[in-house]
């Protein structure tokens, strides 16, 4: 009986340890394998295993005392005791368990890579749909004067609406600087912008210094060949040219929220 309880307790503790390690890797590496319902189920299994293992430990302690009494009695009566397992027995079991755990983590990493790739494709489709809904409003609210562009109230409202969406983490609107080909104007959408009735919001100026800004600048000049390649190379990123007529007058940069629930959005055929 004692051996059965100990083995059952060891199995329960092993399951708890595996679930704990998988949960840590899920949190640290940002896996997106488990749905919320499955996570709740696994939490229930984890805590159930801990409770049962705790009961098993208590029973093992009680039965262990009885086993010690039996051993002492057998020793006193001169009966032979069963041989204890050798060290190699435990080493083989430990190695097999560690190998199985590593294999499980590698398998989950492989599955997560496939899930992430699918989610990125879904994000790009949703991002394209969402930006197309707002692109006309953004184009209409773009400043005419690019020497010191200001943010019109309608543009501020649209940008606030976009960035408050669960789908996006941040958004930036870029405009060209006619006075300098190596510079851009930009406005970063704010979730809750601070009201300032005395002075309108203004675009900030920057000099092109990274690949994203280089691609944005080229797109504003009508050279958008690198735009699809840039989007494919980045995770949960979308760039949308804002057209006015046949020319791109601005570029909207969107950084996706990797933890968003895409089921809250409808796909358009």
Give an overview of the whole structure.
The structure is a single chain. This protein is α+β, with helices and mostly antiparallel strands and 269 residues long. It has two domains: 83 residues; 145 residues, Beta-Lactamase (2-Layer Sandwich). Helix content is 57%, strand content 14%. It has a five-stranded antiparallel β-sheet with strand order 3-2-1-5-4, with helices on both faces. α1 packs antiparallel against α2 and α3 runs antiparallel to α4. The mean pLDDT is 79.
Compact summary:
This protein is α+β, with helices and mostly antiparallel strands and 269 residues long. It is 57% helix and 14% strand.
Characteristics:
6 helices; 269 residues; five-stranded antiparallel sheet; Beta-Lactamase; alpha+beta; elongated
The average pLDDT value, as a whole number, equals 79
Annotation field: number of helices: 6
The separation of the N and C termini measures 63 Å
- Described by its quaternary structure, the protein is single chain
Radius of gyration: 31 Å
CATH topology of the largest domain: Beta-Lactamase
Number of strands: 5
Instruction: List the helices and strands in order.
Output: HHHHEEEHHEE
- How many domain modules? 2
Biggest sheet features: 5 strands, antiparallel
Flag low-confidence runs: none
* Arrangement of strands in the largest sheet: 3-2-1-5-4
How helix-rich are the residues, as a percent range?
55-70%
The appropriate CATH architecture of the largest domain is 2-Layer Sandwich
Apparent shape: elongated
CATH class descriptor name of the largest domain: Alpha Beta
% residues in beta strands = 5-15%
Which structural class matches the secondary elements?
Answer: alpha+beta
């Amino acid at each position: 009986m004692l051996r059965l309880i100990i083995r059952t307790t060891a199995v329960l503790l092993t399951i708890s340890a595996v679930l704990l390690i998988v949960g840590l890797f899920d949190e640290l590496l940002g896996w997106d394998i488990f749905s919320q319902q499955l996570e709740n189920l696994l939490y229930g299994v984890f805590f159930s295993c801990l409770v049962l293992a705790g009961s098993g430990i208590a029973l093992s302690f009680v039965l262990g005392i009885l086993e010690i009494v039996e051993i002492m009695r057998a020793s006193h009566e001169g009966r032979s005791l069963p041989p204890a397992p050798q060290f190699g027995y435990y080493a083989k079991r430990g190695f097999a368990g560690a190998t199985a755990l590593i294999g499980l983590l590698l398998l989950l990493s492989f599955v997560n890579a496939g899930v992430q790739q699918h989610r990125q494709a879904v994000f790009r489709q949703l991002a394209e749909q969402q930006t197309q809904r707002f692109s006309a409003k953004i184009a209409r609210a773009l400043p005419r004067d690019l020497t010191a562009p200001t943010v019109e109230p309608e543009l501020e409202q649209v940008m606030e609406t976009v960035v408050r969406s669960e789908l996006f983490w941040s958004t930036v609107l870029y405009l060209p600087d006619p006075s300098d080909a190596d510079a851009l104007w930009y406005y970063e959408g704010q979730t809750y912008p601070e009201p300032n009735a005395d002075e309108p919001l203004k675009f900030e100026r920057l000099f092109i210094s990274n690949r994203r800004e280089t691609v944005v600048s080229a797109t504003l000049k009508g050279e958008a060949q690198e735009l699809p390649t840039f989007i494919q190379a980045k995770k949960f990123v979308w760039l949308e040219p804002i057209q006015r007529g046949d020319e791109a007058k601005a570029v909207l940069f969107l950084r996706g929220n990797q933890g968003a629930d895409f089921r809250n959005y409808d796909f358009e055929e």
